[in-house]
Structure formats: C-alpha cells, structure tokens
Amino acid sequence: MSSKQGGKAKPLKQPKSDKKEYDEVDLANLQKKKEEEKALKELRAKAQKGPVGGAGLKKSGKK
Length: 63
Description:
Blueprint: H1 24-48
C-alpha cells in the first residue's frame, strides 16, 4: 500500500455563496451601523490624544 500522499490532506473547497439581496430596511440598518462604527473610531482617536496618566514618570526623592 504505497501512496504518494504525505502530510495533511487539503480541505475541500467550499462553494461560493450567492450574493445576498438586501431590501431597503436592511440597507438602512447597514448604513446606520457603519455610521456608528465610524463615530466610535473618531471618539477613540480623540480619547488617545493628550497625556496618558497625567504626570508622566515619577522620580524618587533619593539622590
């Protein structure tokens, strides 16, 4: 029983899924979701600007 099959077998390709057709309600929901995500990204970008932690590195009083 000699075979030239070594290593893992390749997984079978899955058939391509058909493109979904959206109605007006679905499109409105998708658009709203994209706008909310965009607003969240902007808020996160604003929140990361400026000093983090306030005072920065603390120095010890010892010399």
